[in-house]
């Protein structure tokens, strides 16, 4: 892409959208288009249409979404499916109508079946039942992926998708109940350290295996995909390695410096037993992640402290 390419980043105040914005700015892109939720309601088709018709970006990155962890997905499934379906169909259709030739839609690896063969390949999509705790979110993201695939097939536009694994880093959501597992652990251990709590309780058995990708690595992968002349319809965006929730908790404990005990609450659900992505498809295009989980957790904890001190912490 040329440095004056007009690029719209939907969801630039979120973790991954913010990382994409930083990456583009760092590479010298000058014509970047953003709107906050109060400035542009992506749930309103007419408003989204008017925005795209007025601005006519060359490229759109759709990173906006209603997101949350197991608790949030289980508690608000109607909100998750409605809002994410609306965001996907409104932005993708409006982009096509406005003549946008390049669009990258961000989904999630939760689109794959609960018991998909590990590591999960892109072709396992729709081959089995979804994990029930995030089914609503997954269905909406599958719909967005398929919208891109079919608009590309029917209209010849380069609309494609990336399915990130569990992301973390600057701008993450640290809500005590509705956040994802890694930011939830960072907050829990930090508060336990400050309060000198004797123990920290972790949901589940600690046995499930999860994969984590730093948001800056994800942004680098997204920019790489945007440079490809003929990208795949969708690719997994991960690191290709996983870690148990128990080992992750112990890593966060060491990073934060908490000296109390860990207790695993086996009355709480574990969710999917393992979720590791096969990243051979994107690696074949020349990209690979650069940030290890150890370095990434240390970076995330520093971001958590800085955002808390400056009053920018999302919770």
Q: TL;DR of this structure?
A:
With 315 residues, the chain is α/β, with parallel strands linked by helices.
- The end-to-end distance, rounded to whole angstroms, is 35 Å
User: What is the CATH topology of the domain at 7-171 and 212-241 and 275-291?
Assistant: Rossmann fold
Overall geometric form: globular
- Average pLDDT figure: 95
N-to-C series of helices and strands: EHEHEHHEHEEHEEEHEEHEEHH
What is the overall number of helices? 10
- Biggest sheet statistics: 6 strands, parallel
Lateral arrangement of strands in the main beta sheet: 2-1-3-4-5-10
At the fourth level of CATH, the homologous superfamily of the domain at 7-171 and 212-241 and 275-291 is NAD(P)-binding Rossmann-like Domain
Q: What structural class is derived from the secondary structure elements?
A: alpha/beta
Q: Report low-confidence residues grouped into runs of 5 or more.
A: none
CATH domain class name of the domain at 7-171 and 212-241 and 275-291: Alpha Beta
Counting DSSP E segments of at least 2 residues, the number of strands comes to: 13
Q: Which architecture of the domain at 7-171 and 212-241 and 275-291 does the CATH hierarchy give at level 2?
A: 3-Layer(aba) Sandwich
The percent range for helix content is: 40-55%
Q: Rg to the nearest angstrom?
A: 19 Å
Beta-strand portion reads: 15-25%
